[in-house]
Please model this.
Amino acid sequence: MDHRSSGYHETYAAWRRDPEGFWAERAGAIDWFAPWDRVFDPAQGVYGRWFVGATCNTCHNALDRHVAAGRGDQPAIIHDSPVTGSKRTVSYRELHEEVQALAAVLRDLGVAKGDRVMIYMPMVPEAVIAMLATARLGAIHSVVFGGFAGIELATRIDDCHPKVIVTASCGIEPSRVVEYMPLIAHGLEEAQFAPEHCIVLQRPEHVCAPVEGRDIDYREAVDAHKNAGTVVDCVPVAATDPLYILYTSGTTGQPKGVVRDNGGHMVALAWSMDAIYDIRPGEVFWTASDVGWVVGHSYIVYAPLLHGATTLMFEGKPVGTPDAGVFWRVIEEHRVAALFTAPTAFRAIKKEDPKGALVGDYDLSSLRTLFLAGERADPDTIEWAQRTLDVPVIDHWWQTETGWAIAGNPVGLGRLPVKIGSPTVPMPGYDLQVLDDEGHRVPAGTLGNIVIKLPLPPSCLPTLWNADERFRAAYLDEFAGYYKTADAGYVDEDGYVFIMARTDDIISVAGHRLSTGGMEEVIGRHPDVAECAVIGIADPLKGQVPAGFVIVNSGVDRDAAEIESEVVRLVREEIGPVAAFKIAVTVNRLPKTRSGKILRGVMQKIADGAPWKMPATIDDPAILEEIGEALRARGIGAFARQTA
Ligand code: COA
Ligand code: AMP
Model:
C-alpha cells in the first residue's frame, strides 16, 4: 500500500520521538491563563497528568476568544429540528451572552468551582449552553442521555451529588412527547442525595408544572440576567481539574464516572479537528448523535466550538422525520462539510431507501467526508455509503474513556488507503498493542486484547469520579503498564487495526453502549424471577439488541408471557427505552459451566445462528438444546448449528 502521500507516518514518528514536545506544540492552539510547569508529570494522579501547573478555562476557549477574534457574527450552533418543525441559528456572540446569563443563574444558586451540575436535556441548544455555562464557572457537568430513565438518573445523582439539575419539560421522539418531570421525580425518589434546584426549560410541546421552591424557569432567569447585562468572567481552573463526568456502562449496574480534564481535552480535541476531520474554522460540522453520549460531548459541543467551526445540532432521526432523505436535506441546506454518525443511522436509511434514490433530490457538493464510529462498521454499510454519497467513508474507533479516536484515518494529515473492516491506524498519542491473556505481545494478524501502553494521551480519562481504585481495577490491573480497552481485535502486517468484539458484557445497541449485567440486575429485582441472563444478539438495523433469559421462581404459576412482558416493562422503566429491551424468554434452566458460570457466549452464538462448539466445561449439554428450542420458538437463531 502506498502511504507516502499521507503525513500520518511522519506525525506518528514525531510523537514517538518526543511525546511531550509533540503535545506542547499542539497546546499552542489553546489560550492558557498560566503556562504549565510540566507537559506531563508521571508522578501525579493514577498514571500521570497532562499540562500540570497550567490554568485555563474551556468555555473561554470555546467562546470568548472567538468573539474577541471577530467570529461574533458567525453561527456557532445551527439547530435543525424536524421533530418540532423549527430551525434556529445561534451566533458566537449570542451564545456567549446566553452562556454568561445561565452561568449567572447557576452562580446565584451557589454553583462554584468544583461543584457538579447535572444536565438532562434533549437535543436543544440550551443543552450546549448549560454545558458551557457550567464550564465557565469552573464547575463540573454531568450530562445524562434523555433516553435513560429513573434508576440511571438516581445512580448518577448519588455518585456525583449535583447541586443543580438543568433540564427541560420534554424531549420529542417521533412517536411521542417524552415528559422529563416524571422521570426526574422517579430519579429523585430513588436517589439518596437531593439536588437543591432544577432549572427547567419549558418547551411549547409540553409545559410542566414547576415544583415550588425547587424549580427555576430557565427562560425567565436567563432573560433577567441578559437584560441586566450581568457579566460572568471565566473562572480559571487547573488544566488537570475536571471539566465533566460522563457516566458509561460498566460491568455492573453501577455506571462508571469517566472524568475528563480541561487542559489535555482541549489540546487533543482542537488538534483532531484539523488532523483527523480536516475541518477549517467557519465550516459546518455535523455530528448526528446526542449530547448525552461521548460522541456528542466531543464532536457536537467541544471540538467544533474550540476550533471556531459551526456545529450542527439535529433533533430528529435518520428516517421517519419525515423520511430517509432528511440527512441529505440537512447537508444541502446548511452546507455541511463533514458528517459524523454511527453506522446504524446508515443502516436505517439504507433499509428505507436501498437504492439511495433520495440522494438525487439534493445538492451534497459541500460534503467532503463521512465519519463513522460507535460500533463496528459493517462492509455493506460502508460500501453503500461510499457509493451513494461519493465521498470517502472513514471508520474510526474510540471510547467514552478516551474522548477522541484511538484509531482512525487522519484525513487532515492525508488520508491513508481504506481497508474496509478496519478503523485504520493508531492516532499519535496511542501506543496500541495486542496482548494475549498472559500479557505477551502477539504477532501481526493474531487476535488478542487491545491495550494502550501508559500513559494515555491528553483527553483520556485520568481516573473515575471518586474511584481511583475502581479505575485501576477496571482498566490498569490486568495488564501491568497498559490500559485495557476491553476490545478484542488484531493489527495486520500494515499496522491496520481491526476491532472484533468486546471482552466484557458491554453491547452496542444502535451505537448506544449498554451493559447486559446492568439489565440483569434490574430483571433480578422482579419478584417472580429466580435467575436471568442477558445477551446481545445480532440485529440487522441496530447491530445488536439485548435478549433476556428468565427462570421463574419455583411455585410461581403465573402465565410466562405475563411475566415476560413485566420484565420488558421493568427494564424500560428503570434503565430507559434506549436499552431497546424487547425480548424476554422464559426457560427452565440456564447453561452453565461446572463451576457455575453462565455460558453467555455460546448462547449468543446460538441466537445469532453462528456455528458453536459444545464447551468442554459444560455442566449439562442438554440445556443448550433447550435454549435453542426456546429461541426457535421466537423465530430467533433458526439456523444455529453445532460444529464438531
Ligand atoms: N429520549 C427518550 N427516548 C429516547 C431517546 C431520547 N433522547 N432516544 C431514543 N429513545 C427511545 C426511542 O424512542 C425508542 O423508543 P421505542 O422503544 O418506544 O421505539 C428507544 O429509545 C430506542 O431508541 P433507538 O435505539 O434510537 O431506536 P430508534 O428505533 O428510535 O432509532 C436509529 C433507530 C438507528 C434510527 C437511531 O438509533 C439513530 O438514529 N441512531 C443514530 C446514531 C446515534 O445516535 N448514535 C449514538 C452514538 S454515536
Ligand atoms: P462508547 O464508549 O459508547 O463510545 O463505546 C465504545 C465501544 O464501542 C468500543 O469499546 C467498541 O467496542 C465500540 N466501538 C466504537 N467505535 C467502534 C468502531 N469504529 N469499530 C468497532 N467498534 C467500535
